[in-house]
């Protein structure tokens, strides 16, 4: 039993090391804050954790026996490791496939965009999708004005051209939230008014809780709606440096 426990323990440590590397990729590159909350990525990750951190070492504890012929023991351990690799590969594939590639700001709202949501061939030359080692890219869409806005309203009234601007990659522009950003002031001007937030029964409790946990006053933060098929809430940025302060659920 001591030998089995030692083997299972070593197997657990090796599995934990591999899982830690994979989780670092998922949570710091593919789904950095706040995307892991917006996309509920833990749904896929927990299956991988269960198989790789629980089932693998447990099976090692059950089958590991030095009295077995060496070839049989190697065969059994190989099968367990292959099952772990298969589960890990599946989990990483799913999380990579469903990761957001762009975080699009359009008309006062942020939209997480998946690869399947748009036609990448329509991207203009200023924008490229993130590589496997890159995080989602920030995107800005210039608001419709004048004749373009009128034409858009007419198209919507006629039931044509209803595809949202956020899904039209030909209109994407790179977005930087640094002080020298060309679009920074426009984004700041489109933040949700504090008076609206504090009067809203939906948002006031969450906004006050976020401010209390992060410190300062509400005027230190900028709030914007975030919309996708899994999350409809607010994202808060610090006004001083535009770092993400957190999410507010309705």
Keywords:
250 residues, alpha+beta, 3 domains, four-stranded mixed beta sheet, three-stranded antiparallel beta sheet, 8 helices, elongated
Kindly describe this structure.
Helix content is 47%, strand content 15%. It is of the alpha+beta class. It folds into three domains: 2-97, no CATH class; 101-189, no CATH class; 191-250, no CATH class. The strands form two sheets. The protein has a four-stranded mixed sheet with strand order 2-1-3-4, with no helix packed on it. A hairpin with a 5-residue loop joins strand 6 and strand 7. Helix 1 (2-30) runs antiparallel to helix 3 (42-63), helix 1 (2-30) runs parallel beside helix 4 and helix 3 runs antiparallel to helix 4 (70-97). The chain is elongated.
Strand segment count = 7
Strand order of the largest sheet: 2-1-3-4
Q: What share of the residues does DSSP label as strand, in percent? A: 15-25%
Taking all residues together, what is the mean pLDDT?
Answer: 84
Tertiary shape: elongated
Specify the structural class: alpha+beta
What's the N-to-C terminus distance? 52 Å
The major pleated sheet works out as:
4 strands, mixed
- How big is the Rg? 24 Å
Uncertain regions spanning at least 5 consecutive residues: none
Return the domain count: 3
Instruction: Give the helix proportion (percent range).
Output: 40-55%
SSE pattern: HHHHEEEHEHHHEEE
Oligomer: single chain
């Amino acid at each position: 039993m001591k030998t089995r426990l030692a083997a299972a323990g070593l197997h657990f440590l090796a599995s934990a090391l591999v899982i830690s590397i994979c989780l670092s990729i998922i949570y710091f590159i593919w789904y950095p804050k706040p995307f892991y909350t917006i996309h509920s990525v833990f749904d896929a990750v927990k299956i991988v954790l269960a198989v790789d951190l629980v089932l693998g070492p447990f099976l090692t504890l059950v089958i590991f026996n030095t009295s077995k012929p060496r070839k049989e023991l190697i065969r059994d351990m190989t099968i367990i490791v292959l099952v772990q690799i298969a589960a890990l590969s599946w989990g990483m594939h799913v999380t990579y496939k469903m990761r957001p590639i762009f975080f699009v700001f359009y008309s006062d709202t942020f939209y997480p965009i998946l690869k399947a949501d748009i036609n990448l061939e329509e991207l203009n030359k200023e924008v490229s999708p993130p590589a496997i080692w890159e995080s989602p890219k920030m995107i800005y869409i210039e608001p419709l004005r004048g004749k373009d806005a009128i034409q858009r309203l007419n198209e919507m009234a006629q039931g044509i051209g209803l595809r949202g601007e956020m899904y039209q990659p030909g209109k994407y522009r790179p977005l930087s939230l640094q002080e020298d950003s060309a679009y920074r002031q426009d984004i700041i001007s489109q933040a949700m008014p504090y008076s609206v937030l504090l009067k809203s029964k939906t948002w006031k409790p969450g906004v006050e809780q976020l401010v209390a946990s992060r410190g300062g006053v509400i005027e230190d933060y900028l709030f914007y709606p975030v919309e996708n098929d899994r999350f409809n809430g607010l994202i808060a940025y610090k006004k001083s440096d535009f770092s993400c302060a957190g999410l507010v659920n309705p």
